[in-house]
Design brief:
Strand content: 15-25%
Order of helices and strands: EHEHEHEHE
Strand order of the largest sheet: 4-3-2-1-5
CATH topology: Hypothetical Protein Ychn, Chain: A
CATH class: Alpha Beta
């Protein structure tokens, strides 16, 4: 199962939805891959710090997915254009992969769900 997330953290609830769907899919035995595109490139940044400690930390949620075996890839061009391309600032298993990966994801997954605004 694949997800393409085009929205950033805290602006829409799509990131939360993808995290929850991916978590449940893994629990049911599915292989899950996520491609973060356009503003989605902001989601796996370690530098995300919610103002209040009791608020959810999107980057931490992405890292939890990594620990569950979810493959998380970020568009390097999207990150570069947004001034956030930095391997050291990505959580867990997140790494940069170009649109070729998205093509492979589309071909390999039985379902690809896209979240955009």
């Amino acid at each position: 199962m694949g997800f393409m997330l085009n929205t950033g953290p805290y602006s829409f609830e799509y990131t939360d939805l993808v995290v929850n769907l991916a978590r449940e899919a893994v629990k049911k035995g599915h292989t899950v891959k996520i491609y973060l595109y356009i503003d989605g490139a902001y989601n796996p940044l370690k530098s995300i710090k919610p103002p209040l400690p009791e608020e959810r930390n999107i980057a931490s949620l992405i890292e939890e997915l990594c620990k569950m075996g979810v493959d998380v890839k970020v568009c390097p061009v999207c990150a570069e254009y947004r001034g956030v391309k930095d391997e050291d600032n990505l959580v867990g298993c997140a790494s940069y992969e170009g649109l070729g990966y998205l093509g492979e994801l589309t071909a390999d997954c039985d379902k690809l769900i896209v979240f955009t605004h």
